[in-house]
Structure formats: structure tokens, C-alpha cells
Amino acid sequence: MQISESNVAQRSWRDWFAGLSVERIALVLGLVTLVVAAVNPLFKNTFLELWSRGLLIGCVLMLAYTLAGNWPQTYVARWHVQILAVVLLAPLCAVIEAIVDTHGNIDAVLNDRHRVAGFFWVLFLCLGVGLIATLVALVREREALANAQALRFALEKETLERQALDAQLRVMTAQIEPHFLLNTLANVQALVETGSARAAPVLRSLIGYLRAALPRLRESEGTLGGELALARAYLDVMQMRIPDRLQFDIAVPAELESVRFPSMALLTLVENAVRHGIDPAEQGGRIEIGARREGDGLRVWVGDSGVGLNPSAPPGSGLANLKQRLAAFYGPGARLDLLDGDGRGGRGLRAEVVLPSTERRA
């Protein structure tokens, strides 16, 4: 749809006068009232006469400042043009005020020393107060612009950080634990070659894990029920691989399965429990998964009876990434706690994800 020239011109004029805000007009009104109240004893005119003329001059100077603020940015800075407009227009306003006061009789001004003094007072007030008000307005505008830019940069930074975390999550989920898959397939191959009856159950568990994992490759957030299904499928496979060394139990109320929960977060904790808790333990151990509501939030835990927390071990990248995701998606109230023991007084480690609210931050 074509836009007519009149519409373009009308829009450009609206842009020129866009700075005439109610706040700016109120500031001019207040400033004129204060100045007139202070200098009223110096003039013979009534307060209302001085106030009406001062308000007219103030509005003219404000209009000049606003229009100059829309000056195209060329070799001269815009704020230079605004100051120049006020400096040039202030004396003109004083002259016009003197002409109006004497009804056009300039000789009456020149031959009356009181009127001459009054003219210079008006000139001084127009120029001085106008310049002060202009400088204050310029400083406030620059501060507002700086704050707006800082806020925009902060929002852009937060957006980029979230995008980086989401990309990192997609890379992690796209891998689907290649070492885990390769090792499991190698075990299936060995079981098949030896004619073991365990080959088919291990393969079924692996297929169940892939069916649970593949739909989540492009998700950044799912439900607790979906994450539990993925964790159960993973533990089924691991239990088939090490049946004598791994037991697990999942006890989560059914009403919590529809609650929103970070994608792959629970699997990260379960994998960490198997790899760093159960595998290094000579007798293996048990993994327990649970969850409960806490107000509007949620607490989900994965406890294992493995070797426990090693204070000298460097922090794993999986848990560090999970902490960053929780902070970016759910705010500073979300956290990941690592506690000694499995939560029942035994050895091992208990990892807890605490969400103050299950609603992701905007």
C-alpha cells in the first residue's frame, strides 16, 4: 500500500514536535512560576502580567529547544544547535517583550531608564535561566540515553547468554552420550556373539532409552514426567549392563509429572550419580530419585549410595552447565545443592535441584 506525500509530511511534523511532552511543559510552568515570584518585587507590573509573559517566553524557548533537538546530525552536534537556538532566541524574546510592553513605542523604552533597566533584567533572565534550563535538560537527556543504552546492552547480553546456553544444551543432547551408546552396543554385540539370553533385554532397554531421548533433542524445557521417563530408560540400560552393582528407585508423586522442568537436567544428575558414585564403588550402590512441592516451587533430588563426594576432585562440566542454565532460566533463586550422603544417613551423594517457581523467567 502506497503512502501519500501528505501522510509522510504529517508524520515528519509529528516527529519534529515529539519532544513536547507533558512533563517538559510542566517543568517550564514550574520554573517560570518560581522565577517570576523571585523577581516580581523588581518590576511595577503585576504578578499575573509577569507570569503570563514569562510563560509565553518559556514556551517559545522550549519549542526552540525541542525543534533544534530534531536537527539532522551532521558536522555540528545536535546539542550545539540546541544551545545556539536558545542563545539566539532569548534576546529576541526580550526585545519582543519590550515592544509589547510599550505597544510598539521604542522611544519610550530608550528614554526611560527604568524601562531600560527592566529590558536588561528581562534579557538577563531569558538568557541566563534559558541557558541553565537548557544545560540541565541536556544533562538529563544524556543520562537517560546512557541508562537506556546500558539497559539495552544488559538485555542483549542476557539474551546472548541464554542463546549460548541453549546452543550448548543442544550440543550436549545431540551427542546422546556417544561413549555410553558405543559401550552399550559393544556389550550387546558381545552378548549376541556368546549367545547370552541377556542380549535381547539389553537391546530393548537401549531402544527404550533412545525413544525417550530423541524427542528431547530440540527441547530446552520439558516436564518432570518426561525427564523421569528418560532417567528410567537410562537406568534400565545401565542396570542391564551392571545388574549386580546397580539398583534404583523412582518415587515421585503422579501430580508432579506435568510440572515444567529443565530438559536433560535430571538425566545429568543421574549420569553423574552412575559415573562418579556407583561405578567407582566396589560393591556398586543404589540410586533414588524423588521430588516434592515447596510452595510455588519444586525440589527434585537424586541420591546415590556410592563413593560420595570427593573434595579434591575438580567440578564436572555437566553440573557447572546445569547451574548456569538454572540461573539463566529461573533466576538467582534456583540452585543446585550437593549434599554428603544419600539422604538417609548412608554414604554417597545427594544432588538437589531447587526451583523457587516452576515458571521460567521471561
Residues in β-strands, percent: 5-15%
Subunit organisation of the chains: single chain
- Global morphology: rod-shaped
Largest sheet: 5 strands, mixed
Could you give me the name of the CATH homologous superfamily of the largest domain? Histidine kinase-like ATPase, C-terminal domain
Helix content: 55-70%
Q: How many structurally independent domains?
A: 2
Give the termini distance in whole angstroms: 35 Å
- CATH structural architecture of the largest domain: 2-Layer Sandwich
Count all strands and give the number: 7
List unreliable stretches of 5+ residues: 1-11
The secondary structure category is alpha+beta
Average pLDDT works out at: 76
CATH level-1 class of the largest domain:
Alpha Beta
Structural overview:
This protein is α+β, with helices and mostly antiparallel strands. It folds into 2 domains: 5-163, no CATH class; 176-355, Histidine kinase-like ATPase, C-terminal domain (Heat Shock Protein 90, 2-Layer Sandwich). 61% of the residues lie in helices and 12% in strands. The chain contains 11 helices and 7 strands. It has a 5-stranded mixed β-sheet, with helices on one face. It has a two-stranded antiparallel ribbon with strand order 1-3. It is rod-shaped and about 125 Å long. It starts with a helix and ends in a 7-residue tail after the last strand.
Key phrases:
single chain; 362 residues; alpha+beta; Heat Shock Protein 90; 2 domains; 5-stranded mixed sheet; 11 helices; rod-shaped
Write the layout of secondary structure elements.
Elements: H1 5-16, H2 22-39, H3 47-68, H4 78-101, H5 106-110, H6 113-175, H7 178-193, H8 199-213, E1 221-223, H9 224-241, E2 246-251, E3 260-262, H10 265-278, E4 285-294, E5 297-304, H11 317-330, E6 335-340, E7 349-355
Parallel strand pairs: 2-4
Antiparallel strand pairs: 1-3, 4-5, 5-7, 6-7
Helix pairs in contact: 2-3, 3-4, 4-6, 6-11, 7-8, 8-9, 9-10
